[in-house]
Structures are given as C-alpha cells and as structure tokens.
Hints:
Layout: H1 3-14, E1 20-25, H2 35-38, H3 46-65, E2 92-97, E3 100-105, E4 112-119, H4 128-132, E5 135-137, H5 143-161, E6 172-174, E7 178-183, E8 186-195, E9 198-205
Parallel strand pairs: 5-6
Antiparallel strand pairs: 1-3, 2-3, 4-9, 6-7, 7-8, 8-9
Amino acid sequence: MSGAQALDALARRLLPVGYGCAVLPLTAEPEPLLPEEAEAITRAVPKRRREFALGRMALRVAIRRAGHDLPAVRPIPARPDRQPDLPPGIRASLSHGGDYCIAIAAPPGGASVGVDLEPCDRGVPEGLAETIMPFRLDGPAHPLLAFCAKEAMFKAQYPLTGRMLDFREVPAVIGPQRFRACMGDRLIGGRWGQAAGYWLAVSLWRG
C-alpha cells in the first residue's frame, strides 16, 4: 500500500460515511488550472504553483466523492483570506503536509470539516509548544500532534464564523484517538490517527 493509499484509508476510518476524501502525492502531475484559479498564483514559484494545482485537483475529487455535482468548468479560486472559494452548499478542507496533499469534503447537508496533515518526523519549531498551549496530552503524544489537532479545529469552524483563533485561547485535550477543545463557551473536537509517517486530524463542526 502506498503512502497516499494509507492516508486515504485512515481518513475514511476517521470520517463518517458519506464524506469524500482525496490524497495526492506532490509528485503527481497536476491538471491545468482554470484562468480564475491561476490568477491566485501568478507570482508564485513553480513549487507553490504545483502544490496549488494539486490541491485544486484533490478538492474536485473529494467534492465529487462526497456526492456533489461540481462542473469541471466551475473554478475554485482563492478568496482574499486564501481559502478556497467554494460554491454555496459545499463544505471542504485542504491540507498540504510533507509529500502529500489531502482534501476532505462534506456530503450535502454535512457538517463543516477541517483537516490537517503533519509529518511525524518534522522537527519541532522553536517556541511551538508555547504558541499552541494550553493543551493536555492523554497518553504518548507530541506537540506537533497538538498543533495538527488545533489546526483541524480552526479549519472546521472558520467557514462558519470567520473567526481567526489564537491557539493559546483554545484549551485542548488530545486523547488516544480523539481530541476536544473549548472555543469560548462552545466545544469542538475531532479524531486523529497515524499512517505512512504522518499525523492526520479531522474535525467536524455545525456551529
């Protein structure tokens, strides 16, 4: 089983039935971007252009697998906040980590979704633990896993609230398979797993 297949299988275990997933290695050949999509990366270096194109490709596959009809001629441009500008009624999330990109899409009427992918062997950036505190790890874990979980939760809530979160204001508990956090007076959570040398976290939120 390839790394992409292992991550895809893990994502499907973490998600409810009906959610669409697509994992692509960054070595894959991307499909051509539509003109409105290409505008977002006209000044980007080739590596960034490739990652952007593969991300759009993964989004389209995940959205289709979630049961949506997204015409091939409908662009997914970037909004001013750099988030994918998705059609009304479509909720999806995208992450690039290490050698892969992953997209998750909710089925029609599904909860808002957030996903994050982090290589397990990535060095811990200086000051990261302090930046993402407070969090509690129940069992063996790692500061990068806490970051991965908080990033997934941020992505799940952002399309509904437009709220930029200071991770230090979101106390979190990372358990063996699940995580949860307080966002003001609201609870948010998700599930995580490990495959192919990566941590993968997904969060669902209905607001």
